[in-house]
Amino acid sequence: MSENTALPRKANTKQKIIKVSSKLFSEQGYKGTSVRKIASEVGIRESALYNHFKNKEEIFLCVAKEIFSTPFSKDSADIKESALRGKAFLQKFAMQYKLLTFDKNNENMFRLLMLELFQNRELREQFMLEFHDNNIKMFSEAFFIMMQNSMIRSGDPMMVAYEFISTLFYIRLQITLLRFDNTPTTALSTQFEKHVEFFWESIKL
Question: What is the fold of 3-62?
């Protein structure tokens, strides 16, 4: 087997491990999911799994990174192009955030991650970097560009970013808590769109 063929196959196996692990973690929890079970579901030997990850915690952190990370590119050119769309940029982000919120597997992982955050320092650091710092940085850049182009009122772009993201996170948390108790969330299904409308009207020129 050539090296060029082996590399894509290794990458595909790693992605399959991440996908299977996400499902198992969400269904059985962190403690209830073993490396042996993950390997069995993927269809590889347990020893082969260690070619991709050193232990279960590393797999969990990798899955968590995908849950926490922004759905948008962090490339400055892409951020500028997106920011110039103004309200449409915010709507796209909120819609993707909404889809993640109501995705069953993603919801279960989000619930598990909220519990594990208080027990795993590395996970907390990753959460602060991937979800908090990177998202705030991206939106700060985007709002700064909007201010420069006279699309929104001038101000502290970081505070504007905090205001936009924090409400989305709260809506997601509220829906997760309600669904945990099997309480209907239909009334909250349009909150993401309403937030964008209200937020945009409060900052636009």
Answer: Arc Repressor Mutant, subunit A (1.10.10)
**8 A C-beta contact, residue 97 and residue 107:** no
Instruction: Output the six-digit token pair for 176.
Output: 């997760």
Residues 6+ apart with CB under 8 A from 137: 74
Domain residue ranges of the chain, discontinuous segments joined by +: 3-62, 69-203
Whether the predicted model's global pTM rises above the 0.90 cut: no
Please report, as a single letter, which amino acid is at residue 110. Answer: F
Q: DSSP code of 31?
A: T
Q: Are 97 and 110 in contact (CB under 8 A)?
A: no
The 10s digit of each residue's pLDDT in 105-153 is: 778 888 888 888 888 888 888 888 877 788 899 999 999 999 999 999 9
User: Per-residue pLDDT averaged across 23-47, rounded?
Assistant: 90
- What is the rounded CA–CA span in Å between residue 153 and residue 147? 6
**Second-level CATH architecture of 69-203:** Orthogonal Bundle (1.10)
Integer Rg of the chain from CA:
19
